[in-house]
Protein backbone atom coordinates (compact mmCIF):
# COMPACT_ATOMS: atom_id res chain seq x y z
CA UNK A 1 0.00 0.00 0.00
CA UNK A 2 1.51 3.34 -1.03
CA UNK A 3 1.89 6.00 1.62
CA UNK A 4 -0.15 9.11 1.02
CA UNK A 5 1.80 12.39 0.86
CA UNK A 6 1.59 14.52 3.97
CA UNK A 7 0.04 17.95 3.43
CA UNK A 8 -1.09 20.82 5.58
CA UNK A 9 -4.24 22.80 4.71
CA UNK A 10 -4.10 26.10 6.53
CA UNK A 11 -7.90 26.61 6.79
CA UNK A 12 -11.12 24.79 6.03
CA UNK A 13 -11.87 25.27 2.33
CA UNK A 14 -15.03 24.05 0.55
CA UNK A 15 -15.57 20.30 0.26
CA UNK A 16 -15.48 20.64 -3.54
CA UNK A 17 -11.68 20.60 -3.17
CA UNK A 18 -11.10 19.44 0.37
CA UNK A 19 -12.62 16.03 -0.24
CA UNK A 20 -10.19 15.28 -3.09
CA UNK A 21 -7.31 16.51 -0.98
CA UNK A 22 -8.33 14.18 1.85
CA UNK A 23 -8.72 11.25 -0.57
CA UNK A 24 -5.27 11.71 -2.10
CA UNK A 25 -3.27 12.93 0.85
CA UNK A 26 -2.58 12.47 4.51
CA UNK A 27 -4.01 15.90 5.24
CA UNK A 28 -3.89 17.91 8.42
CA UNK A 29 -6.46 20.68 8.32
CA UNK A 30 -6.26 23.80 10.47
CA UNK A 31 -9.83 24.22 11.67
CA UNK A 32 -9.50 27.47 13.63
CA UNK A 33 -11.33 30.46 12.14
CA UNK A 34 -8.12 32.52 12.37
CA UNK A 35 -4.98 31.63 10.39
CA UNK A 36 -2.15 29.71 12.05
CA UNK A 37 0.53 32.05 13.42
CA UNK A 38 3.74 32.03 11.34
CA UNK A 39 5.65 29.94 13.92
CA UNK A 40 2.87 27.34 13.99
CA UNK A 41 2.70 27.22 10.20
CA UNK A 42 6.43 26.66 10.16
CA UNK A 43 6.07 23.75 12.53
CA UNK A 44 3.14 22.29 10.61
CA UNK A 45 4.81 22.31 7.16
CA UNK A 46 8.14 21.00 8.46
CA UNK A 47 7.43 17.39 7.43
CA UNK A 48 4.99 18.12 4.60
CA UNK A 49 5.25 17.62 0.84
CA UNK A 50 2.36 19.95 0.12
CA UNK A 51 0.73 23.04 1.56
CA UNK A 52 -2.61 24.66 0.82
CA UNK A 53 -2.03 28.29 1.76
CA UNK A 54 -4.28 31.31 1.99
CA UNK A 55 -3.44 34.93 1.32
CA UNK A 56 -3.08 35.36 5.08
CA UNK A 57 -0.18 32.86 5.18
CA UNK A 58 3.18 34.47 4.56
CA UNK A 59 5.30 31.89 2.74
CA UNK A 60 8.78 33.28 2.95
CA UNK A 61 12.22 31.71 2.48
CA UNK A 62 12.63 30.88 6.19
CA UNK A 63 9.42 28.91 6.17
CA UNK A 64 10.44 27.10 2.99
CA UNK A 65 13.81 26.25 4.50
CA UNK A 66 12.01 24.74 7.47
CA UNK A 67 10.19 22.37 5.07
CA UNK A 68 12.86 20.45 3.15
CA UNK A 69 10.34 17.97 1.65
CA UNK A 70 7.91 20.64 0.41
CA UNK A 71 7.16 20.19 -3.30
CA UNK A 72 4.15 22.40 -3.82
CA UNK A 73 2.33 25.38 -2.36
CA UNK A 74 -1.22 25.60 -3.68
CA UNK A 75 -2.55 29.07 -2.93
CA UNK A 76 -6.29 29.36 -2.41
CA UNK A 77 -6.36 32.73 -4.21
CA UNK A 78 -5.51 34.22 -7.56
CA UNK A 79 -3.15 36.75 -5.93
CA UNK A 80 0.12 35.34 -4.62
CA UNK A 81 1.84 38.31 -3.01
CA UNK A 82 1.90 36.27 0.24
CA UNK A 83 4.46 33.92 -1.36
CA UNK A 84 8.08 34.65 -2.16
CA UNK A 85 7.96 33.18 -5.67
CA UNK A 86 11.67 33.62 -6.39
CA UNK A 87 12.53 31.77 -3.17
CA UNK A 88 10.11 28.96 -4.05
CA UNK A 89 11.54 28.58 -7.56
CA UNK A 90 15.08 28.61 -6.24
CA UNK A 91 14.19 25.75 -3.90
CA UNK A 92 12.36 23.71 -6.56
CA UNK A 93 8.93 24.29 -5.04
CA UNK A 94 5.94 24.62 -7.40
CA UNK A 95 3.37 27.32 -6.70
CA UNK A 96 -0.23 27.23 -7.93
CA UNK A 97 -3.06 29.76 -7.79
CA UNK A 98 -6.75 30.00 -8.79
CA UNK A 99 -7.12 32.36 -11.77
CA UNK A 100 -10.17 32.69 -14.00
CA UNK A 101 -12.88 31.31 -11.73
CA UNK A 102 -13.17 34.41 -9.57
CA UNK A 103 -13.20 36.98 -12.37
CA UNK A 104 -16.96 37.58 -12.46
CA UNK A 105 -17.47 37.52 -8.71
CA UNK A 106 -14.65 40.02 -8.20
CA UNK A 107 -15.81 42.32 -10.99
CA UNK A 108 -19.33 42.19 -9.56
CA UNK A 109 -18.01 43.25 -6.16
CA UNK A 110 -15.92 46.06 -7.68
CA UNK A 111 -19.04 47.33 -9.42
CA UNK A 112 -21.09 46.92 -6.27
CA UNK A 113 -18.58 49.07 -4.36
CA UNK A 114 -18.48 51.60 -7.19
CA UNK A 115 -22.23 52.14 -7.23
CA UNK A 116 -22.57 51.93 -3.44
CA UNK A 117 -19.93 54.64 -2.97
CA UNK A 118 -21.22 56.80 -5.84
CA UNK A 119 -24.82 56.64 -4.60
CA UNK A 120 -24.00 56.76 -0.88
CA UNK A 121 -25.92 53.56 -0.16
CA UNK A 122 -24.25 52.59 3.12
CA UNK A 123 -24.46 56.14 4.44
CA UNK A 124 -28.18 56.08 3.58
CA UNK A 125 -28.60 52.76 5.36
CA UNK A 126 -26.95 54.14 8.52
CA UNK A 127 -29.15 57.23 8.25
CA UNK A 128 -32.25 55.05 8.16
CA UNK A 129 -31.13 52.88 11.08
CA UNK A 130 -30.27 55.89 13.22
CA UNK A 131 -33.79 57.31 12.86
CA UNK A 132 -32.60 60.47 11.04
CA UNK A 133 -34.86 59.82 8.04
CA UNK A 134 -37.73 62.27 8.55
CA UNK A 135 -38.82 63.11 5.01
CA UNK A 136 -37.91 63.00 1.31
CA UNK A 137 -35.05 65.43 0.86
CA UNK A 138 -34.68 67.35 -2.42
CA UNK A 139 -31.05 68.25 -1.85
CA UNK A 140 -30.00 65.54 0.59
CA UNK A 141 -27.94 62.40 -0.13
CA UNK A 142 -26.83 63.57 -3.57
CA UNK A 143 -24.43 61.20 -5.25
CA UNK A 144 -22.78 60.81 -8.66
CA UNK A 145 -24.35 59.68 -11.93
CA UNK A 146 -22.89 56.63 -13.64
CA UNK A 147 -24.42 56.59 -17.12
CA UNK A 148 -22.15 57.86 -19.87
CA UNK A 149 -19.24 58.58 -17.50
CA UNK A 150 -15.61 57.49 -17.80
CA UNK A 151 -14.18 54.46 -16.03
CA UNK A 152 -10.41 54.27 -15.58
CA UNK A 153 -9.16 50.71 -15.11
CA UNK A 154 -5.71 50.28 -13.61
CA UNK A 155 -4.59 46.80 -14.67
CA UNK A 156 -6.53 45.51 -17.69
CA UNK A 157 -6.27 41.80 -16.89
CA UNK A 158 -9.24 39.44 -16.64
CA UNK A 159 -10.92 41.26 -13.75
CA UNK A 160 -10.17 44.72 -15.14
CA UNK A 161 -11.73 43.66 -18.42
CA UNK A 162 -14.80 42.23 -16.66
CA UNK A 163 -15.60 45.44 -14.78
CA UNK A 164 -14.96 47.49 -17.91
CA UNK A 165 -17.35 45.24 -19.80
CA UNK A 166 -20.06 45.72 -17.16
CA UNK A 167 -19.65 49.51 -17.12
CA UNK A 168 -19.47 49.82 -20.90
CA UNK A 169 -22.37 47.51 -21.77
CA UNK A 170 -24.63 48.48 -18.89
CA UNK A 171 -23.83 52.13 -18.28
CA UNK A 172 -22.44 53.21 -21.64
CA UNK A 173 -19.19 54.31 -20.01
CA UNK A 174 -16.07 55.31 -21.88
CA UNK A 175 -13.20 53.06 -20.84
CA UNK A 176 -9.64 54.24 -20.23
CA UNK A 177 -7.01 51.85 -19.01
CA UNK A 178 -3.47 51.90 -17.74
CA UNK A 179 -1.35 48.78 -18.01
CA UNK A 180 2.14 47.86 -19.14
CA UNK A 181 0.48 45.50 -21.65
CA UNK A 182 -1.86 46.50 -24.41
CA UNK A 183 -5.28 44.81 -24.33
CA UNK A 184 -6.37 44.46 -27.92
CA UNK A 185 -9.48 42.65 -26.68
CA UNK A 186 -10.56 45.60 -24.50
CA UNK A 187 -9.79 48.04 -27.30
CA UNK A 188 -11.69 45.98 -29.88
CA UNK A 189 -14.70 44.94 -27.75
CA UNK A 190 -15.12 47.96 -25.51
CA UNK A 191 -13.43 50.76 -27.42
CA UNK A 192 -11.06 51.06 -24.45
CA UNK A 193 -8.15 53.46 -24.76
CA UNK A 194 -4.74 52.83 -23.22
CA UNK A 195 -3.45 55.98 -21.51
CA UNK A 196 -0.67 56.97 -19.14
CA UNK A 197 -1.41 56.90 -15.44
CA UNK A 198 -1.77 60.69 -15.08
CA UNK A 199 -4.25 60.92 -17.95
CA UNK A 200 -6.32 58.14 -16.44
CA UNK A 201 -6.37 59.87 -13.05
CA UNK A 202 -7.26 63.24 -14.58
CA UNK A 203 -9.98 62.09 -16.95
CA UNK A 204 -11.77 59.28 -15.11
CA UNK A 205 -14.97 59.66 -13.09
CA UNK A 206 -14.40 56.22 -11.58
CA UNK A 207 -11.01 54.64 -10.99
CA UNK A 208 -10.96 50.90 -10.33
CA UNK A 209 -7.75 49.09 -9.41
CA UNK A 210 -7.01 45.55 -10.62
CA UNK A 211 -3.26 45.28 -10.63
CA UNK A 212 -0.83 42.97 -8.82
CA UNK A 213 0.84 44.02 -5.63
CA UNK A 214 4.61 44.08 -5.98
CA UNK A 215 7.44 46.43 -5.05
CA UNK A 216 6.69 48.64 -8.09
CA UNK A 217 2.96 48.97 -7.42
CA UNK A 218 3.03 49.31 -3.60
CA UNK A 219 1.50 52.71 -2.71
CA UNK A 220 0.96 53.57 -6.37
CA UNK A 221 -2.03 55.57 -5.10
CA UNK A 222 -0.78 58.29 -2.76
CA UNK A 223 -1.54 61.95 -2.04
CA UNK A 224 -0.17 63.08 -5.40
CA UNK A 225 -2.36 60.65 -7.34
CA UNK A 226 -5.54 61.51 -5.44
CA UNK A 227 -4.84 65.20 -6.06
CA UNK A 228 -4.82 64.56 -9.82
CA UNK A 229 -8.25 62.93 -9.71
CA UNK A 230 -11.54 64.80 -10.17
CA UNK A 231 -13.19 66.09 -7.01
CA UNK A 232 -16.24 64.07 -8.07
CA UNK A 233 -14.21 60.89 -8.58
CA UNK A 234 -14.99 57.58 -6.95
CA UNK A 235 -12.03 55.31 -6.20
CA UNK A 236 -12.48 51.52 -6.01
CA UNK A 237 -9.94 48.97 -4.78
CA UNK A 238 -10.77 45.27 -4.90
CA UNK A 239 -7.17 44.15 -5.55
CA UNK A 240 -4.77 44.57 -2.61
CA UNK A 241 -4.74 47.11 0.23
CA UNK A 242 -1.05 48.10 0.07
CA UNK A 243 -1.51 49.40 -3.49
CA UNK A 244 -2.85 52.43 -1.67
CA UNK A 245 -1.31 54.74 0.89
CA UNK A 246 -4.27 54.47 3.22
CA UNK A 247 -3.48 57.65 5.16
CA UNK A 248 -3.38 59.58 1.88
CA UNK A 249 -6.71 58.05 0.88
CA UNK A 250 -8.19 59.08 4.20
CA UNK A 251 -6.96 62.64 3.76
CA UNK A 252 -8.27 62.81 0.18
CA UNK A 253 -11.71 61.61 1.25
CA UNK A 254 -11.84 63.85 4.30
CA UNK A 255 -10.78 66.98 2.46
CA UNK A 256 -13.09 66.36 -0.51
CA UNK A 257 -10.16 65.91 -2.88
CA UNK A 258 -12.15 62.93 -4.20
CA UNK A 259 -15.83 62.20 -3.69
CA UNK A 260 -15.88 58.67 -2.29
CA UNK A 261 -14.19 55.28 -2.18
CA UNK A 262 -15.29 51.65 -2.20
CA UNK A 263 -12.78 49.19 -0.77
CA UNK A 264 -12.78 45.42 -0.52
CA UNK A 265 -9.20 45.44 0.73
CA UNK A 266 -7.32 47.52 3.29
CA UNK A 267 -3.84 47.78 4.74
CA UNK A 268 -3.65 46.11 7.21
CA UNK A 269 -6.49 43.62 7.09
CA UNK A 270 -8.57 44.02 9.08
CA UNK A 271 -7.99 47.76 9.61
CA UNK A 272 -7.24 48.89 13.15
CA UNK A 273 -10.52 49.83 14.81
CA UNK A 274 -9.10 53.29 15.56
CA UNK A 275 -8.15 53.88 11.90
CA UNK A 276 -9.67 57.29 11.06
CA UNK A 277 -10.76 55.89 7.68
CA UNK A 278 -13.50 54.00 9.51
CA UNK A 279 -14.95 57.27 10.77
CA UNK A 280 -15.64 58.68 7.30
CA UNK A 281 -19.08 58.51 5.77
CA UNK A 282 -17.85 58.60 2.16
CA UNK A 283 -16.10 55.25 2.20
CA UNK A 284 -17.63 51.79 1.94
CA UNK A 285 -15.44 48.98 3.23
CA UNK A 286 -16.11 45.27 2.71
CA UNK A 287 -14.01 42.58 4.48
CA UNK A 288 -12.13 41.20 1.42
CA UNK A 289 -15.13 39.27 0.11
CA UNK A 290 -14.95 39.84 -3.65
CA UNK A 291 -14.59 36.13 -4.42
CA UNK A 292 -17.05 35.07 -1.71
CA UNK A 293 -19.83 33.38 -3.64
CA UNK A 294 -20.66 29.70 -3.20
CA UNK A 295 -19.91 28.82 -6.82
CA UNK A 296 -16.67 30.80 -6.96
CA UNK A 297 -15.23 29.47 -3.74
CA UNK A 298 -16.13 25.90 -4.80
CA UNK A 299 -14.39 26.42 -8.13
CA UNK A 300 -11.36 27.89 -6.36
CA UNK A 301 -11.25 24.82 -4.09
CA UNK A 302 -11.30 22.50 -7.10
CA UNK A 303 -8.39 24.24 -8.82
CA UNK A 304 -6.55 24.41 -5.55
CA UNK A 305 -6.88 20.62 -5.10
CA UNK A 306 -5.86 20.00 -8.73
CA UNK A 307 -2.76 22.17 -8.32
CA UNK A 308 -1.81 20.46 -5.07
CA UNK A 309 -2.17 16.94 -6.45
CA UNK A 310 -0.34 17.82 -9.69
CA UNK A 311 2.49 19.31 -7.66
CA UNK A 312 2.74 16.21 -5.49
CA UNK A 313 2.70 13.77 -8.41
CA UNK A 314 5.17 15.57 -10.65
CA UNK A 315 2.47 16.67 -13.14
CA UNK A 316 2.01 20.07 -14.77
CA UNK A 317 -0.01 22.32 -12.45
CA UNK A 318 -3.26 23.47 -14.13
CA UNK A 319 -2.66 27.02 -12.84
CA UNK A 320 1.06 27.31 -12.38
CA UNK A 321 2.58 30.54 -11.10
CA UNK A 322 6.23 29.46 -11.56
CA UNK A 323 6.46 26.99 -14.47
CA UNK A 324 10.12 27.98 -14.75
CA UNK A 325 10.71 25.65 -11.78
CA UNK A 326 10.27 22.63 -14.11
CA UNK A 327 13.60 20.86 -14.42
CA UNK A 328 14.57 21.54 -10.83
CA UNK A 329 11.41 20.37 -9.06
CA UNK A 330 11.95 18.67 -5.74
CA UNK A 331 11.67 14.90 -5.80
CA UNK A 332 11.49 13.36 -2.38
C1 LIG B 1 -7.57 36.49 -4.47
O1 LIG B 1 -7.95 35.40 -4.91
O2 LIG B 1 -6.44 36.94 -4.67
C2 LIG B 1 -8.56 37.29 -3.70
O3 LIG B 1 -8.04 38.39 -3.12
C3 LIG B 1 -9.31 36.44 -2.71
O4 LIG B 1 -10.13 35.59 -3.42
Short key terms for the protein model shown above:
about 325 residues, seven-stranded parallel β-sheet, 12 helices, 12 strands, binds (2R)-2,3-dihydroxypropanoic acid
In short:
With 332 residues, the protein is an alpha/beta fold. The protein has twelve helices and twelve strands. Bound molecules: (2R)-2,3-dihydroxypropanoic acid (DGY).
Tell me about this structure.
The chain is α/β, with parallel strands linked by helices and 332 residues long. It is built from twelve helices and twelve strands. The strands form two sheets. Strands 8-7-6-9-10-11-12 form a seven-stranded parallel beta sheet, sandwiched between helices. The protein is globular and about 75 Å long. It starts with 5 loop residues before the first strand and ends in a 20-residue tail after the last helix. It binds (2R)-2,3-dihydroxypropanoic acid (DGY). (2R)-2,3-dihydroxypropanoic acid binds next to loops.
